[in-house]
Structure formats: structure tokens, C-alpha cells
Amino acid sequence: MGCQYIKKYSDFIGVYEKLYHLQADQSLEEIYDLVEKVLICKYKISIHLLFMSIFNAIRYNYRSIAIYVNILNNILKKHSFKYKDLLQYKTLNEHGDLCSDEIHSYLRISKKSNTSNQIEFDTNSLPKEGEIQYMIIYDQVDKFREYVTQHSLESITIKVPCFIRMDPIEACCYFGSVNIFFFLISNYDIKITKQCYQYSFIGGNIDIINKCKKNNEIDEKCLNYIISSHNHQCLEYIFQMDLFDPQYIDGDLIIISQNLKVVFLLLEKHNNLVTPWCAAFPQTIDVFKNRSIDFSKISLAGCTAIHYAAVGNSNEIAEFLISQGVDVNAKNDYNETALHYSPYKETSEVLISSGIDINAKQVKGYTALHLAVNINNKEVSELLISHGADINSRDIDDKTPLLYATENNCKEMVEFLISHGADVNAKDKKYNTPLYCATENNCKEMVEFLITHGADVNAKDKKYNTPLYCAIKRRNKEITELLISHGADINFKDRYGTNMLHWAAKVNNKKIGELPISDIDEVDIAALGLATKENSKEIIKLLILHGADIKAKDIYGNTVLHYAAYGSDKDIIEFLISRGADFNDKNKEDLTILHCSAKGNNIEVAELFILHGTNVNSKDKSGKTPLHYAAENNSKEVAELLILHGADVNSKDENDITPLHYAADKGSKEVAELLILHGANVNVKDNYQRTAIFSAVDNNCREIVELLLLHGADVNLKDKYGQTLLHYAAENENQEVVEFLISHGADINIKDENGRTALFYATTNCKYYKEIIMFLLSCGAFIDTIDKDGKTPLHYVCENYYDHVSELLLSQGAYIDSKDKDEKTPLHYAVLTDNSTLVKLLLSHGAYIDSKDKDEKTPLHYAIENNNSKMVELLISHGADISSKINLSSKLNLEKYSQGSQVIT
């Protein structure tokens, strides 16, 4: 029976097979002609489903994306569909968009006026001749062979949209590049993975498939890839040999790929394998009429056959199902009826005439009208409204269909809905109205239309913003004028107390000065400061004209000049000073204008303020001068200017930090050189007894370390905690700096206040860089030095679970049974941290298994305390003495380990 149907619909099946197996050089006219004549005209497949299937084809045949885009554009042009509307169409497949995000990221709507409804794609995303991906795609084995003689195979990864990055062998399987595939497996030790087998069904090369199938089985992904890529040769084989598990069948995927052949092959196996989803294929009408079909079967998402009939515009199947008593109002797990899935007039009419609830809402509150409007489907919208659909129905965000139409900038739909009674001032949960949405979209025609139909120009959203705020934010003079001319309140304030001039200043909307705004009530420092930061002289003049106080301060004590100092140009500063701005003002942190210009690396402004007599050594509340900020922000030019005018290069802030400390901390070598050149003391200490070189080492700035040592920095100086530069470098795992410091006289065995040398810091921090430890040892670091707690480096690595460092120390002769002040050995700590790997390592190097600490406990006692039966077993198997007694309560029964020996109590 299935074969009979396959033959009957061979043209439909054949066109899709050709469509999925396009070659990049194939004739566009030939394939488009087939699509138009067979799929669209004869079988009347919907444009939505056709686009969905072509996007799916791109996923599995990415090299032919250019020809696919041309086919899509031809369809759009001939059938007057809008690409942006098609992208809103939802499928049953996990409620995902028509086009996957990753494929869509390569495509865009043309911005050219003559092709505004055409799709463009980024040609730069395609590999070019000579690139490794191009070689693999087109199986250029000779060029590939030459390429890999100059590049490591491990460095090659291939990016295919919608898939994780592939290595070369996987990419060969995906693209069916058989010559490179066999070159790789013949010349490299390459494992053929499960992913290779899965991708081989997309590439469809039989030789590759046969090579990959060894030790691999057909799994769910294999089946999905076979179906999605229309690999019918493999499809027939696995069906004939029963090599698939029926539970792998994904009906939604079969619909998306429009693989009708799978439907009929499954039908030969059993009816239940194709229900309920086969209803999405109108060609299965005879199956429903002539075979015993279980109409009650539902999908995993709760969809019935009638839902699927709506998806595929299978109106005959829908009529038949309803005639057989199928519930037209059946809902799936998302509370959706078939009407939610029907963007087609014919099937929608069948459902409505059969009594479907036209205003039913799904879980997000969408009615069928919401969904029809969202894809700009006027035909279905009109049908729904004519049969009583609530035109002002709200979803869970309180959005009406009109709000969606304005958000999508669909003027014709907006006009249609309003003409049928849609509330023009309906607000969603954010209190956005259609007028606000239209203003947000910069659509003047829509704004004008809504206003003339009663839209409230002063409607406020939850942040108290009006459409006027939005127009100014968008720098749209025409819409701003339009709103004001229709009564928009120019004195209205948002919840932060800012008015339209603040908004204009914030976005540097220079066109605001051209508007009729003479009635603005008040302007404060915030608006003036924003305009100054944006370098907008026109808006500054406008604000002053409307009463902005040039000497006003914000809540932080900043004047307009503080704002200007960060980024404004010299002309604006001079203009503000000419209008009375005080250049000696300080804010609440005692920052002068000169501090701010140094922070903002604004040399022109800094120079101007210095010429006006600003104190170059003024300190803020933290004790910083402008030179501190210039050094901190790597502002060499500003620092040079300040020094030239008398800045103190050794000035200290409240933490005794000098500009040189800040330059070293930020890696500002040029500033550091400048400061030293002008007398900065390289050995000045901060309140932690650290000189500038500590900051350089702490931030791994080798060049500055070298510079400071060259100018007399003490390499063995200790900070407040007794740590030297070498301690810092070892802790930061910076081998280059460690080597450099030792080569310049750093004492390798000097101890901090806790008695720890650089080796301690290296072993407890260099989890992955054993080279530093080896270097320190090779330079004479004492491997068994003890700190104030009596611990050696080996104690710490055992305590911190660093197995490989322990192995290194043991291999270099570390004393394995050293005891700390609690008389614990490294083995005690390994057991305490439940590290069986480390315990085995220590025992293999001869650690004394029965060593006792000051509490008379052996490692075995601690294993029992930790209730670690595996550790107990390990220790006993290595000869631990289980007769040793202390007062210890244990939950473990040791009899099974002791084989009759006395148990610890």
C-alpha cells in the first residue's frame, strides 16, 4: 500500500529530493520551475511550509545557500509575501521560529528600496577558494594534502551553521568529501566517532557511510539526519533491514522536511507509526478514509490529528476527522486548539464552521487572532473577526492584536483593525500604547494615522515616558513636531523628574532646538551635564536660554564643568567659562575640574584649566592629585603637562600611594618612565610597605619590573607581611618574572612572616605550571623548608589535593614523613582530604603508614572518622596497624577488612 502511494506522489517526493540535494552550480530556473509548477500550483503547498522546508534544507546542504536564497526571493516576488512576516510563523516543532536563529543570522531583509522584500545573505560567511573549508567542501584532496603539510591537523576546525564546530574528518562526512576522508584515515591515526557516522548520512556518500558504520549503530540522530536530508537510498535500506527504533520517529521533523516518502514507508510498517502527525500531509487523505486509523492518538505535546491537519492546511482531512467525531476544540499541552495552528483561510473556515472556540486562549493568552495579526495575515484575521473574534482580546502581557500590528509596523493591518473597532489606546502591562510602539518604530505615517483616530499623545508607560520621549530618544524631528502639534505636553516629566530637554541632551538630539519649545518650565544641571558630555553646543545654548543655572551642582556636587572635563572639546569649555562657570569648583569628593580632565585623558581641557590657574597639586578626599589620575589612566600627555606645570611626582594619597605606584599597577610603562625621569622615587613605600615594583610584579608587568630594577628598586624588599617580590611572582604563577627576579639577585629562600618561601607559594598556587617549581628547585630552593606551623611544601600540596605537584616534589627528594607542629605527616592530610590517588602515591614512595600525630591518631583513624570505607580498605590492604587503640567512636565495622584481627576502638 505504501509503495502505491509513493508512486502516486512521486513528483512531489522527487521535487523535494532535488530541492534538498541542490548543487551550488545547478540551474536556478530549472529547480524554481519545478517548485512553482509541482509544489505550489499542483499540490498547493503553503508558502509558510515551503519556506520552513527550504530553511531546513540549508541546514543540511549549506554549500548551496546562494541558490536557496535565490529560490526564496523568486517565491517572495511572485507571491507577494513578506519575509519578515514569514519569520513569525510558528511550527509544532518545539514552538520554534520558522527559521533557526543561526541560519537567520546569515540572512537579512534587503535595505535597498527596489528590493525591500528580498533576502540577502552575508557572502563573507561563505568560504573562499584557497581556504581550508572550501577545500573540504569541494573535496580538493591535492590542495588539502599540501595545506596539512604546513598546518597541524589539530588546528583545523570547520564551522557549519546549526552544528557544533567539526574537525576535518567530521566535515568530510557532512559534505561527503570522500577523497579527503580516505586520505585522512590512511595517513593519520584518526578515530571514526559516532558523530562521523551521524554526519555521513547528511553527506550521503555510500563509501563514507560504509566505512563509518563499523562499531556504530543507527541511533536517533542518524535517523533524523537521514529523514531531514532526504537521503532516500539509506532510508529505504534501514526500513528494509529494520535498522531503526520506532520510538525515534519524529513527526514534526518529517513535516518540517516535507519528507512524504517517510510517511508512506512507515505506513507499510504500521498505521500507528504515522498518527497523528501524518494529517499535516494532505496527500494522506486516502489513508484516513481507507485504513483503520486511531484518531485518539496524540503527540508528546498533546497535539491531535486535527492540530496537524491545521498545520498542513489539510482541510479535507480536517473535515473528515470532524465527521468522524474528533473534538474540534481539542487542546494540546499548551492549551492550543487547531485554530491557533491554522494560518490558512480554507482550513480555518472548516474549523470555524464546525464550532471551534474562536476566542480560545493558549498558555500565553494568544487567541487565533493574535497569531494571525502577528504574521500579518489579513485574510485569516478578517475571517476570524467576521465570526466573532474579540478584536481587543489581551494576552498575558495585556497585548491586543493592534499592539502586535503596530510593533510589527504593519500599517495596513493597523488600519484594518481600527476600522473594525480595535481600541487605539489599549495598554499592555508596561503601559505601552500602539502610538508609543509606532513612535518607537520611527513610523511617521502610522503615528499620524493613530493620532487622527484618537490616540492619546500624552499616554504614559510605567516609567512615565510618553511618545514624545520616545520620538526625542529616536532623534526623529518630524514625529516630535507632529506630537507637539497635536498637544503633546512638553513639560511632562518621567519618574526621575526629567523632561524633554534632558532626553534631548542625553541622546545629543540637536534638532530639538528647531522645535517650538519656548514654554519649557525648568531645566536643571542634569540636562546641562548630559549635553556637555555629548559635546552638543547647540543644546547647551538652548538649555541656558531656557534657564539652566550654569553654576548649579548635582547631588554629587558636580558642576557642568566637571561633566565637560571628561570629554568635551575646548570650545565648549571656553563657552561655559564665558557664561560664568567656575573652574575652581570642587565636588563632594573634592575633585577639581583638573582631576576630571586627567581621569578623562582630556589634554586640551587640562591645559585650559591650568592656564586659568587651577592648582595642579590639589588633592581630593582620597588624597589623589590630578597626576595620580593621569598615571592611573595611562594618560602620558596629561601627566607630562601636569609635571611641566609643577605637579609633585612623589605626592602620596591617603594610602601613601604615589603616581608611580599607579602607573606600575596599570602597566603604564611610558608614564612610569616619565615619572622616573622627573624624579619619582622608586623605593617610596605605601602603607603596606610596598614600593611601586610590587604593583608591577603583582600585575605581571615584566617591562615595568625591569625598568624599576634598572633605576634602583630593592629586589629583596619585604612588605608589611614579610613577602618579597619573589613571593608575589610565584603566587601569580608568572615564570618569566620569577626567572627575571632571581637573575637580578632575589633571595630564593627568604621567608615571609609565616616562615614561607617562594616555593610554598609556587606549590600551592601553580596547579598547572610545574615549570616554576622545577625552576625554583634548580636554583637552590630548599624543598623541605618548614614554616611557622612546621609544614613543608609537601604538607600543603597534600592538604590541597594537588596530586601532580606532590609527585613532582617526591621525585625531587622531598622528605615524605616530615611532621608539622601537630605531628601530622603528608599522609595524614591526604587521608583527611579523602584523596585516595594521593594516598596510593605516598604509600608507593614509602610513606610510614602508622605514623601518629600528637593526638596519637594514625591515618587509619582519620579514614574511620571520615566514614570512608574505601580509604580504610586501601590503608589496611597496605598493612595499616588496626590494633592501635584510642578513644574513638566509629560507624565502620572493620571485621571484614581485618579478617579476624583486633578492631580499633
UniProtKB/TrEMBL annotation:
InterPro entries: Ankyrin_rpt, Ankyrin_rpt-contain_sf, DUF3447. The lineage of its organism: Eukaryota, Metamonada, Parabasalia, Trichomonadida, Trichomonadidae. SMART domains: ANK. Keywords: ANK repeat. It comes from the Eukaryota. The keyword Transmembrane helix does not apply. Residues 189-265 form the DUF3447 domain. It comes from Trichomonas vaginalis (strain ATCC PRA-98 / G3). The keyword Aminoacyl-tRNA synthetase does not apply. Pfam families: Ank (PF00023), Ank_2 (PF12796), DUF3447 (PF11929). Signal peptide: none annotated. ANK repeats lie at residues 301-333, 364-396, 397-429, 430-462, 463-495, 523-555, 556-588, 589-621, 622-654, 655-687, 688-720, 721-753, 754-788, 789-821, 822-854, 855-887. This is Ankyrin repeat protein, putative. Gene3D superfamilies: Ankyrin repeat-containing domain.
